[in-house]
Amino acid sequence: MEITSIDVYLLDAGNQREYRRPVVCRVHTDEGIFGDGEAGIPYGIGAPGAFGMLQDIAHLAIGMDPMENEVIWSKMFKASSWGLGGGGIIFAGISAIDMAVWDIRGKKLGVPIYELLGGKFRSELRTYASQLQFGWDDKIGPWKTPEEYASVTQYALDQGYDCVKIDFTQIAPDGTRLPKHDVEGIPTPKTMKMLDDRMGAVRATCGWDFDLMVECHSRTDAISAIKLGQLCDKYSCMVIEEPTIPMNPLMDKAVHEKVKTPIATGERLYGRWNYLGHFLNNAVQLAQPDASNCGGITEVKKICDMAEVFDVTMQVHCSGGPLSTAASLQVEAAIPNFCIHEHHFRSTQPDIRRLCKYDYQPVDGVYEVPDLPGLGNETSDWAIEHALKHAQVNSAKRGLNG
């Protein structure tokens, strides 16, 4: 079998277009089997860069055998030159091609990807409702008052979730985006009271028999994260996520030495090399690699295996489109050190849900792992027909090292 051409699409997320611009590819073969993959730079800035990078790196895969995923991955990583630096855009491109290759392998052999990864440890995945500061399902934020944070949390719990994640630092009391400098350094008493009031209202109203994950989005630094971490300890939180900029694991280590609540991080770490410092320094207890930007399924499985050596539990980060969700489910089913699956607020919205053929959603806070061959999902006809941009690559680049 041989890869003959690769289509690259910048998808239209409709009303979410300001926040989400998923970039996907479809890898075609001479046997008529195709595979889909996602480049995980879907939100904020960067989607056009991922769209261009995916076109460029696609040339490296043309003519190769999709059954040889390790060979293809190594070529993309080394021949691209920039892959050796572990940047987000290049790794998003690698991830999309790799994900599509695994999809092809599963379809060729007639099995789900989890079978190719060694088998299924579980058929159901405990799932948390993620980023409730923006809303949940049809209850749309952003939220300002402590009472609103408690209300949206209860709304998710009433749907059967027993774990939620909230960034209490993103939204100011007036509903605008809280400036980052307000949660860096030594927080003012006013800021600490805002955080305490919000977290306290969630516990006072919704109780203590569910897990509360506290998101920081690297808005905090080591100083402010320790102060916030003390509140996490007070309110018995499951984890504090991305408390510092992840490029320096010593800062997460500093937080961990002062705070009892475990640290979660990893969505902005690319490749196993960038994880090693966190593992060696015991700077992460819940690792969160993103299958659509950490190097694809080939690489995320290696990160999960390496994490097990350091007693680190895993959650495959999932905040992109439905293809990213599909890849996460396949990997999480096949690893022994799985902790919990992320279901992002944006993934509850119709404009994201229609981008794939199948609309998988959790039931009572639990995801079932699809048993269809490959990823178990594919980009929908609607998404392809309404794509904002489309490019096709059908030739190999010559003269590249690797």
TrEMBL record:
<dbReference type="InterPro" id="IPR036849">
    <property type="entry name" value="Enolase-like_C_sf"/>
</dbReference>
<feature type="domain" description="Mandelate racemase/muconate lactonizing enzyme C-terminal">
    <location>
        <begin position="146"/>
        <end position="262"/>
    </location>
</feature>
<keyword id="KW-0456">Lyase</keyword>
<dbReference type="InterPro" id="IPR013341">
    <property type="entry name" value="Mandelate_racemase_N_dom"/>
</dbReference>
<dbReference type="GO" id="GO:0016829">
    <property type="term" value="F:lyase activity"/>
</dbReference>
<protein>
    <submittedName>
        <fullName>Mandelate racemase/muconate lactonizing enzyme family protein</fullName>
    </submittedName>
</protein>
<dbReference type="InterPro" id="IPR029017">
    <property type="entry name" value="Enolase-like_N"/>
</dbReference>
<dbReference type="Pfam" id="PF02746">
    <property type="entry name" value="MR_MLE_N"/>
</dbReference>
<dbReference type="InterPro" id="IPR034593">
    <property type="entry name" value="DgoD-like"/>
</dbReference>
<dbReference type="InterPro" id="IPR029065">
    <property type="entry name" value="Enolase_C-like"/>
</dbReference>
<dbReference type="Pfam" id="PF13378">
    <property type="entry name" value="MR_MLE_C"/>
</dbReference>
<dbReference type="InterPro" id="IPR013342">
    <property type="entry name" value="Mandelate_racemase_C"/>
</dbReference>
